[in-house]
Structures are given as C-alpha cells and as structure tokens.
Amino acid sequence: MKDQVELFEAERPALLSISYRMLGERSAAEDVVQEVWLRFAGQAAVENPRAWLRRVATNIAIDTLRSARNRRETYVGPWLPEPLIHTDGSPVEAGFELAQECELALLWAMERLAPVERAAFVLREAFDADYAEIAAMLDRSEAGCRQLVSRAHKRLHAEGPRFDVSRDEAAAALERFFHAAMQDHQAALEMLAQDAMAISDGGGKVSAALRVLQGPEEIMQVLRAVLERESRVGGVTFDWIRANTTPALAQYKHGVLESVIAVVPDRHGRVGWIYIMRNPEKLRPQTGVD
Fold first, then answer.
1. Dihedral in degrees, nearest 10, Cα atoms 166, 171, 177, 182
2. pTM for this predicted structure
3. Which domain holds residue 112?
4. Closest listed residue to residue 83, CA positions, set 275, 289, 218
5. 59 and 9 in one domain?
C-alpha cells in the first residue's frame, strides 16, 4: 500500500494537469484526481501504473466535461476558466505547478473542442504522448487520434486568440492598455483591435457583463464606466500577479481579491482578447496590497 501511495503522489501533478486542462476548474480537477485514487486503491497489481492512471484520469475528465457542458447552459453570463494565481508572496498551490503552464486563452479556446478532441490535443501537446499511447487511452485508432489532434490545431488557430505570446509581450500590452484606459480614452481605443473581445465572468455572484463585449467602442464604453465607478470607491488597490503563465492585474477591495484581468495582443500588437474574472468562487483568497 505504501508503494501504491508513493506512486500515486508522484503522478498527482500530471493527473491534476490533465484534469485542469480538460475542465478549466481547480476543484473539478481535484475531484477527478480523487476519483482516480479511489479506483487505483481498489486495484490489484497494475502492469503500467503511470499509463493506467493517466488513462483513467483522461476518461473521467471526458465524462465530467460532458456533464459540465450541460450545466454551463444555465450559467449566468459567459463562462471563463478558473485562474491559477501566483503572486510574489503566494505561489500556486502545491500540485498545480504543471497545470499552471496552460495559458488561460488556450483553456478558453479549447471549450470549442469536443471532449475527446480536447483530450487528444492535451495529451499530445502538453504531455508529448505518442499516438499509440493516445489511441490506447481513448480507445481509438492511431489514425483517428492524428485526425483529432490535427482538427483541434486547425480550429484553435483559426478561431482562438494567440497562444504564442511571450510573458514580456503580454505584460507590456496589459500595462500600456490599462494605463491608457485610466487616463486617455482615445489612446485606449486605438490600442484595441477592431475584432477585440472582452469576456467577464461573474457567475451570477457579482456584477459582470452578461455577454461577450465586441469591438473597441463597446469595450471602452463599459470599461470606462467601471473604472469611473471604481475610482469613487474607497479601499481599491491593484497589484501585478500571474494567472497561470499570463501576467495579470489583480484588483483588491479592502484587501480582498475582487477581479483578475489579463489581455492577449494580436499579431499586430493591438489588444485582441481581454479576460476578466470576477466570480468569487473562482478567485482563490490572496493577501491584499497596501
């Protein structure tokens, strides 16, 4: 039993990473990994424990994602993936270090993929699994898995925001845009791509736009109103953090984290995608700034 526990704990970060990349929510990923452990603990000797654990985690995550999509049909407003927050004084929770390497923009874009398509893409791109391994995990042919990954690539690159933005580029774009948004409305407008979108997730718990905002004028109209309102409220502070691998701006009110904001520039350097997480159930408690 001791060896079984040690083996499982050694594999836990990878299992959490698979599950988080599939589901985009920390607690859901933890639930998947707990279910994997319950099944593993009841097993007799497994010939290839690592492969067995990853296969079971992947298939539980596929089933969970199918159920989650039904629940998200009644979600209030847009749904965004839960950020894994890292500040200088508060690193990502133990076990999620590997999971945090997945960009928020990619997590959001993968919502367009079918569950099995998403699983094949995650296993291939994040874990460098060969197609024989993926086929065994998903009970598909190798040729079929190649098609799944190829189709996923095409959809993500054709429809999603960029995933190749460097940390420095993202940080510079975020800083420039929000300094302009607070001081120079016209300059901020010009920094936005014509097809820019801003997505805010309040989950029906707090105020947030109930649909995706499209285009510079609409985005700035709403953002300016929010910033003006916040400027009149006491106890509001900001700090630079990381959400997964992405530089982000955290807003605190009286030391309580209220929102996390990140942007992705397009290939012309204009802001193309804005992520605003406000749902308190997806914001882990963090120490505020003075």
1. 170
2. 0.93
3. 2-159
4. 275
5. yes
Number of domain units in the chain: 2
Among residues of the chain, what percentage have pLDDT more than 70?
A: 97
In terms of pLDDT, which residue wins out, 5 or 232?
A: 5
Q: What is the mean pLDDT of residues 228-245?
A: 86
Distance CA 62, CA 171 (A): 33
DSSP 90: B
**Residue 80 sits in the same domain as residue 121:** yes
| Location of structure tokens 């699983």 | 119
On whether residue 44 sits in a domain, the answer given is yes
Instruction: Find out whether 78 and 212 touch, Cβ atoms under 8 Å.
Output: yes
Round to whole Å and give the CA distance between 204 and 100: 26
In the predicted structure, residue 287 carries a pLDDT above the cut 50: no
Neighbouring residues of 248: CB distance < 8 A, sequence distance ≥ 6: 83, 174, 240, 241, 242, 260, 261, 262, 275
Q: Examine the domain organization and report whether 154 and 188 are in the same domain.
A: no
pLDDT at 264 over 50: yes
